[in-house]
Records
---
Amino acid sequence: MDNLNKEETGTLGKNSQELHLRMIVKRSVTALMLGGIMLVISIAINFYTTLVEADRLETTQFLNQYRLGSKTLTYAVQAYSVTGNEQYYNDYMRELNEDRNRDIAWEGLKGNDITDAEWSEMEHIAELSDALVPLEEEAMKAAAAGDHELAISYVFGERYEADIAVINSQTDEAIDRILHRLAGKKNVLVVVQVIVELLFLLSFVYVMRQILASNKFAREELLVPIQKVSDQM
């Protein structure tokens, strides 16, 4: 700035009024450019935050759908094993072949913001669930044959109950971690957006100050002397 002042002073000579006015204009233009950049960044961040929030809501929906599908299958096969009520068998088959909540949720999550580590965890949970399918099939066969004691031993046995507890626990923990990460990502964007908007506001205030300064300069350094000369003439 000092070098600029020296160069402009040498060019303009003793015309310090013109130099002062040029500096005011230059500062105003610079502030306007920075403000414009901050405005564009703010709009971009706001748009991206909207996309992140939509992704978070959709991911929440798919994760809950996956959890619902798993619990529906478990409840239906256990209820059918105990009661032999065909309604529970139909519920199990409808969830498995028609509603397919787990499959739909799994495909939906592929298009969302899920990290490789989170996918590995979800795949491990899916493997545990798939390992229980043979026990569930045997239980339904036994229940259909009227051997409820054998059916109960399959889906209320120590192995099945332990695996179900692990699956439910790991599913809940995985879902909580994913949702917590997505919420944290959104919060970071919100903070950045607030900072950018504050910078934009500061640039706007600075421009207004420069405008007021230029008006004051024009009035006191240009108009008043001209008016005095005019009055003397």
---
Amino acid sequence: GKAVGVTVDTDGILVLGTGYVNKDTNEVCQPSKGVLKTGDLITHVNGEKITEKEELIEIVESSTGSLNISIVRNG
């Protein structure tokens, strides 16, 4: 087969799906349940504009508490 590349330019981080996380206590949880949906566009975290997945990962990893996430849903 042929390799195909797809690029999607957005003004934030597009949520393609949500999943489960293993906590330090070996408990499995779904932190985005009821909060994020496939197709949401995450535009800001704690008031800071984000455009790259790496920025979101860095903020989440350095967080010790709740996050304030701004999203665009259905336009």
---
Amino acid sequence: MDILTELLQPFQWGFMRNALLAVLVISPLFGLLSTMVVTSRMSFFSDALGHSAFTGIAIGTLCGLADPLWMAVLLAAAFALLFTYVRRKSNMASDTVIGVFSSTAVALGIFIATFGGGSFTQYNSLLIGDILSVEPSKITLLAVILLVVAALWLVSFNRLMLSAIHPALADSRGVRVFWQEAVFSIAIAVVVTVSMTWVGLLVINSLLVLPAAAGRNVAKNMRQYHLSSVLAALVAGLAGLMTSYYLGSSAGASITLYLAVWFAVTFLLRKRRL
């Protein structure tokens, strides 16, 4: 009982309860989306989206918007659509297209943030994130997004997976590959944008890669692959939140380190199994 009381003690504070709810919503989202990010070989796509979201925040701030986050969501969604279009219409590899968009977005964001002698330091908090500052309204928004993404997986999973693995075959089967990829890209864009102020731009990409990367080491089928990815993200999220509370560290960095350790463990298990 004493151990349970000690574990629950941090949640007497309202900000910790909000942070816990945020982790319980964000973690399954990242775990689920991670499976498609890894399967589609788009590991740095979320990084590029983070840069475009930062640009949106800078534009919103420059325009004097009360909540520049909505400008960031809009710009990231447009960025995702444009990226999907260029990737489908060109012969360039995905990593090349991602590099072009990422470098352009971060340069534009820094240019706008420092326009007219402005200071970049006001955006430093976006780099590290602070999950303890999460607002209940944003948690509700992410919960709605989680329901939408889960519904998308149930309805379109086979088409999404086929589009990711073999676009040409998907086309021949009548699958609208562009729109499958576009919807998937926009889902990532919205999740990355809404959660970046809590997780931090420096590590948000890791949260969309490590859960599924570890899952691929041990999963024997697609069901295990998704389940292990979601569970890894959830457990690491809870452990990272508690670590950040007791040690005063960044929650995003703590979660990422737990996932990195889990990846190392699954890699060793994979080698042993082989």
